[in-house]
C-alpha cells in the first residue's frame, strides 16, 4: 500500500503560473498528469515546494484505494481511482480504449505558459494541454487529443478546461435564458452532486457558454469570484460537481453529437479554447479581467487597432420588410444629420424576400426595390461620410427560394424524413466546400461591388436535425466552417467588419468574437430588458463590441413606452445604434437624440476602453459604469427600475475611483434636473458640478433627485 504522496504518487515538481493578482499551482507527480493544487489569489513569490506537497496529501481512508492518486488533475478520465466527472469519454469499435490513464511524457514551462504532453500507451491516446496565464489574470486552456492507436477512436466528450474551485464556492450564477431574454442570471447552489448545463442547438439563447461562481458572501465587489467561458459557438456543456469528499470542480467543453468525432489513427481533435478567471474583487473583478482579456487577446480589429465605434442606424425596426430605395436614402440623410456614422440595411433587400416566408438564400438585389443594385444606396450613404452595412443570413435558406430549388441537397437534413423548418427556413451545410465557396464568392463580390463596410451576419434558427449528405451529425463542422468563412472574408477584405447576430444573443461567445467585431446581444431592444441583459452580458464581453440600440417607443416587443432619455442613457455605454425610422421622429426627439449621440461620441473613448464597474445589487436600481484606466474619469449610469423600497432611495455610491482624489461630478446635457424640491447639492450637481473624493463617492454616497421608475441618469466624474 502506498500512502498519499509516496511511491507512484510522489511529487516531482511544483509548477506555477502567475497573473497580476492570481496564481495557478500544479504538482507534477511520478505518475499521472499534473495535479491542480491551487487556483486563486496570487501567492508569495517564494513557496516551499515540500510544504505544498505535504498540504496536498490527505490521509487515506481504511477502505479506500491502496494506490493514492492526486485529487484533481488537468484532465481527469474514467476507469481510475478518481470517480470524478470524466473530461474524456471515448472508445474504439471493439469496445476497448474506453479508459485512459495518461502519463506525463513532457512538461514545458515558459513565462506565463505550461505545456503538458500526456500519453496512454495501452489505450493509444495522447493529449497536449497548453495553459497560459497572463497579466489580465485569465487562464486560457487549449488542448488536443490524438489517436495513437490502430483503430478509429469514437470521442463522445473531450472537455476544454477543468478547474478546481474552493469547497465553499458552490454558489453559481448560470446565464440561462431564451430568445429576447438572454443572459438571465439564475442562482444555483450546489451542495451535493452535480450541475450540468447543456446547450444542444448551436445557438446559445438558452444557456450562454459561461458561468460565474462564488461563495455565499461573494458580491459584485467583494469576495472571491470565479468565471469560466468556452470560446465556442456550437453546442456546449458546462458541468460542476461536488465529489463525496467535498471537492468542487468545474469543467467547460463542447457538447458532441453522436459520431461527430471519429478520429482515424493518427488524427487529432482540437478542443475549443476555454477561459477562466478569478478575482478577490467579486464578480465585477471577473468582469474586468474578462473584458481586458477579450480586448487584448480575442478581438481582432481590421488594421490591428480599434477605431472609434461608429454610431449606426439599423433599418430593421424602422422599416421591417417594407423597403423603398428613395425612402431609405432619405432615412440615411436624416441619420447623417443626427450624427450617425454607419447606415445598415437589414433583411428584405434581396431576391423575393418581401416577408420571412421566401427568398432567403437568394443573395442578389431585389430589382423591384433596387433597380440598379445596392451601389446607388451605398454611394448615397458614403457621400454623407457614413459607412454602409448590409444584412446577410448566409447559412440559411427558405425552402421557397431559388437557392433551395437549385440545391435541395445542400440542406442539413436527415434524408427520408420530413424536412423540419423553423422561421420557415432550413440550414445549409456550409462545411461542404462547394457551398462555402459559393457563399464566399457571392458575398465577396458584393462587398467589393457595393462598397460594403460591415456585414450583419444573422443566424435565425437552431440546428435540429443537422445531418450532412451522408447522414452524419454536422453541428461541430458547421461552426468550424463558419469560422473559416468569416476568416476568408476578412482576409479578402481587410477593412470589413462583421457582426455576429443570431437573433440576438445566440452567438455572442468568444469563439464568435475571435472572428467578428460586434455581437448583437438580444433582439429585445426594450430599455428595461436591455438594462438587465447588458448588465449580465458585460460580465463576459466588453461593451464596445455589443450593439446597443435606441429604438422606437412603445417598444415592438413588449409594448412598453419609455422616454427617449431613458432609452439613450442605457444604450450609450455600448456600441451605439439607432433602430428606428428617423423620418418619423418628432422635432424635439430628433434634437435630443442628436444630443445623446454627440454625448456618446464624446464619452466613447472612456466607455470603450476603461474598467467595468458594477455597484452591488440593489432591489430597484442598477448602478454601473466605466472608469478610465488611470482612474481620472468615471462615467456611470444610475437606472431606476421600480419604485425604491423606501420613500428615499439610498444614496448613490459609485465604485472604482481613486479614494484620495477629488472629482467633479456633473450630469451632462441633454439631461435636466428632475424631482420636486431639489437640494442645494443636487442643484450643484446639475449645474457646475459637485466636488467629492473617490472615497466619499464610493462609501458615503450622495442623494440624486428622486427618479421615477424607468428613468435613468448618466453621471460624469473627472478628477480635478
Ligand atoms: C433577426 C435579427 C434582427 C433582424 C431580423 C431580420 O431576428 O436579430 O435584428 O435582423 O432577424 O429578419
Description:
The longest helix is centred in the last third of the chain and has 21 residues. Helices cover 21% and strands 29% of the residues. It has 720 residues and is of the alpha+beta class. The protein has 14 helices and 35 strands. Strands 5, 6, 7, 8, 10, 11, 13, 14, 18 and 19 form a ten-stranded antiparallel beta sheet that branches. The protein has an eight-stranded parallel β-barrel with strand order 20-21-22-25-26-27-28-29. Strands 4, 9, 12, 15, 16 and 17 form a six-stranded antiparallel beta sheet that branches. It binds alpha-D-galactopyranose. Alpha-D-galactopyranose binds next to loops.
List descriptors.
720 residues, alpha+beta, ten-stranded antiparallel sheet, eight-stranded parallel beta barrel, 35 strands, 21% helix, globular, binds alpha-D-galactopyranose
